[in-house]
Amino acid sequence: MKGIAAAAVAVLGGISAAQAFDGWRLERATPIPSKTAAFDYITYDPTAKRLYIGHRKEGLQVVDATSGALIGVVAGTPEASSNGATLIPELDLGISNNENGTLIPFKLSTRETSAPVRLGEELDTSHYDPTTKRLFVNMAADASGAEIAVLETPSLAKVGSIKLATKKPEHAAFDGAGVMYLASRDLDLVYRIDAKALKVTAEWPTKGCAQANSTAIDTARQRLFVACRGNDKLKPSLIVMNTASGDVGYTAEIGGGNDGLVYDPDVKRLFAANGLSAVINVFEQVDADTYKPVESVLTRPMVKVLAYDQQAQKLFSMTAEGSADASKKINTSVGPFYPNTFFPNTFTVLTYAKAPK
Length: 357
Known about the structure:
The chain is mainly beta and 357 residues long. The protein has a domain at 206-324 and 337-357: Methylamine Dehydrogenase, Chain H (7 Propeller), CATH 2.130.10.10. The protein has helices at 2-20, 77-80, and strands at residues 24-31, 42-45, 50-54, 60-64, 70-73, 82-88, 93-98, 102-107, 117-118, 123-129, 134-139, 146-152, 158-164, 169-174, 179-184, 189-194, 199-205, 212-218, 223-228, 237-242, 248-253, 258-264, 269-274, 279-287, 290-298, 307-309, 314-319, 322-323, 341-342, 348-354. The radius of gyration is 20 Å and the shape is globular. The model is unreliable at 4-19 (pLDDT under 50). InterPro entries: Haem_d1_sf, Host-pathogen_enzymatic-act, WD40/YVTN_repeat-like_dom_sf. Residues 1-20 form the signal peptide.
């Protein structure tokens, strides 16, 4: 009888483990006519159900998230080489973050653009804080570090700047109370910044996590999630930090080449996209400092960024067929064979969803 009971427990345990598996998979792959441009960030507008893709010399592309079809390109962004967009739906405002050091504002409802705002010779991306209604822009670094330019919205008038020692400012997250957490890839730390006073209030090392890159936040539990690319001593990792103290409460290995991290508080899931390993690592949040790997979803090479539809529980990314042309400069800071050439008409928008039960 004891043996039967033990077997029953084992079976039930197996069922429980199986139920924890989400079964994320590719739902749709939609090719988009393309030339040879590189690409960077992807952003989702839940109101209009549209994706905004920074396709560099092919501009800020607007894609129907339901069908994957290309709707159009924001005017002026191919010439400016768009890295991607920051979306502020409550202001009907979209902002193309451009390699040439400009921002191009546009209306989300019509794609009508306003005059470009020049901030410098080069920039990467920007982050919007709904609490202070300010835009924080990652400018290209010089020998002394990087500037975060701070603009008010919707005017985009510059109200200040934050000078940092890092030369690789990356993704940021906000706590809903006027605090910004910014990852530094080259210094292996997170800056805690007062978004109103524009002052750094703490610098927290990302212990066990080298080349901090992507961020997401759980404001209810005061936890910051940081995905790191790793180095020759530390594997690519996900860490969970206490937003009050900077203490690291959890560490786990992820795939290589991370550039995207998403947290869904409704289903308690973390998604880390890793372009070199071609995998999305999925974690379950049990409590503030307890997490369990759920699965590692095989994707395609260069699937490194993410956008997320929280209502429909769908992940979006993109990729293209490419090669590391040895006669051209290769971005070895990401990987020794990181593509620098992409082939025409191979650019593809990808949608991932949980497999039907």
